[in-house]
Write a structure and sequence with these properties.
This protein has 218 residues and is of the alpha/beta class. It is 38% helix and 17% strand. An eight-stranded mixed β-sheet has the order 3-2-1-4-5-6-7-8, sandwiched between helices. Helix 4 links the parallel strand 4 and strand 5. Helix 4 runs parallel beside helix 5.
């Protein structure tokens, strides 16, 4: 069984994903820049799922101790966090959830010059690190309740085997997940987040998500 570290695991998206995997019986390390915050979040999650299955560490130690690293920090912190973790990511799968939101116009698509946040991640890490992009269109507000199960997850990456591992992890968390092609295709999922933010504001909701129709799982 894989051990997952969630970098930025005390935030809304990170803590929600950690809770989903912990409930599924998958060991999770909650990473934070603040060790005390990580340990408190871990203790609270263990109590919630009634299982001593998570632990809290600094971001670097969390990445070092796991074989799958999930990056859930804001776009403005992506580059500095990857610089800090680079040596701990060698030979591992890095699941990048980053969306290039640029306040104050977060409901407007503003992709970076590199094409996507996921491509920035792949360019920032050692070639032995397999970057897979996922979870950009999952509502953080809905993660801790059953509404999120209605949202599909698009998984992009250049390595099909690494993509399949992340598809399975998404399914363990209760999602329907789909292979969506090479890493460059992450640009579409990242852009969709701004559309969903706009729709949430327009229709006074916070659970807008994505549903793939017309095809079914084999």
């Amino acid at each position: 069984m894989h051990t997952i570290s969630v970098i930025g695991g005390t935030g809304e998206l990170g803590s929600g994903l950690a809770q989903r995997w912990a409930k599924a019986g998958i060991p999770v390390i909650i990473g934070s820049r603040d060790l005390n915050k990580a340990e408190i979040a871990s203790a609270e999650l263990n109590a919630k799922v009634k299982n001593n299955i998570t632990q809290g560490m600094t971001n670097f130690n969390a990445a070092s101790k796991s074989d799958i690293v999930v990056l859930t920090v804001k776009f403005e912190h992506q580059a500095s966090t990857l610089d800090e973790l680079n040596s701990a990511l060698h030979g591992k799968i890095l699941v990048d959830t980053t969306v290039p939101l640029m306040p104050p116009k977060v409901a407007r698509v503003q992709l970076p010059s590199e094409g996507s946040a996921a491509v920035i991640s792949q360019n920032s890490v050692d070639k032995s690190t397999q970057v897979v992009s996922a979870f950009q269109n999952v509502s953080a507000a809905a993660l801790k309740n059953d509404v999120v199960s209605e949202c599909d997850v698009l998984v992009t990456g250049d390595n099909p085997e690494a993509r399949e591992i992340v598809v399975k992890l998404a399914e363990e968390a209760g999602f329907t997940a789909w292979h969506a092609g090479p890493l460059e295709n992450s640009a579409a999922a990242e852009a969709l987040t701004s559309l969903l933010i706009f729709m949430n504001k327009r229709y006074k909701n916070n659970h807008a998500g994505l549903k793939i129709t017309g095809i079914s799982k084999p």
